[in-house]
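Batch manifest, entry 17 of 40.
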Amino acid sequence: MSQLKLIDLIDRDMLEEIQEGFADVTGMAALVLNENGQLITKGSNMTDFCMKYTRRSSIGCQRCERSNNEGSKRTQRSGRSAAYFCHCGLMDFSAPIIVNGEFLGSFVGGQVLTEEPDEEKYRRLAREFSINEDEYIAALRKVKVVPAIDVEKAAKFLHTIARSISELAYANYTAKLRTGTAAGGFEVKAAARPGSVMSANVRAANEVLDKFTELAAIAEKCSAEVKSTNETVKVIKDIAMNTRILGFNASIEASKAKESGKGFGVIAQEVRSLADTSKSSADKIEAKMKSIAEYARQMEENAAAAQKLAKEGINEMELLSAKLDSMNLK
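Output type: C-alpha cells
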C-alpha cells in the first residue's frame, strides 16, 4: 500500500473537478496535497494575495510550503480535520484522505480571514517579501472576511468530501487488486459505496432547506399580521381625531354658556386630553409596528436568500455525489 499514491487511485482531473465543486459552493479556495504536503492539483478559487504576491516571493513561498506541510502533518497525526492559521494569518483547514488506514494526502480549503486585518502588519510583510506595499494591501482587501461559524461549516463540508474521496480511492484500489494491477498488499475491508456519505449530506441539507422554507412562511405571515395591525392603528387614530374635534366643539359650546357651562367645559377638556393621549399612544404603536415590519421584511429576505443558497449547495452536492458514483462504475 505504501507504494501507491493518491494520484494512482484518482486521476488529477477528477480531484480538480471535486475541489472546484467545493470552491463554487463555499466561495473559498481549495486544493489537494499529497502525503508529503506537496500540491497534487492546481488550486481552485485561489486568492491573488496568496498566489500572485506571497508565493511569488521566495521567502513567502517557502513559508507557504512550510504551512502546507505542517497542516498536512497535523491531519496525518490526528487522522481528523484541522483548522489553522498560515504564516500570513489567513485561516486554512484540511481533512485527511485515508485509505485502509494509510494517509495518502489531504484536502485543503480556506485562504480567508476571520476578522478585519491589521494593514500595517501586512505592509511590514510586504517589505520583508520585497513586494509593492500598495499592491499587496489592495490584494489583501480582496480576501474574504468570513465569520468563524461559517468557516466551521465549510470545514465540516470539506471533511465530508474528503471522506467520500477516501471511499472512492479505496474502491478503486480494491478494483486494482481484483485485476492484479495494484502494488503491495493488505487486508481488504468491505468498501462503502462511494458517494454514500455525500448522499447523506444531501439529505441533511434538504432538511435544512425545509426549515428555511418554514421560516420564510412564518416571516410572510408575520408581515401579513403587521399590515393587519397597522389598519387597526389607523382606526384608533381616526377615533382619537374625531374625539378631539368633538371635545373642541364641546369647549366652544361651554364657553358660550358662560358660568352655567363651566362643568361641561371641564369634561370637554378631559375628552380632548383623552383624545390626545390616544393619538400619542397610537403614534407610538404605529412607529413600533413599522420597526417590526422592517424586521419581518429583512427576515423574509434573508430566509429567501438562505433558501436560494441551500438549493444551490444541494445541487452541487448532488452533482458531486453522482460523479463519485459514476467513477465507481468505471
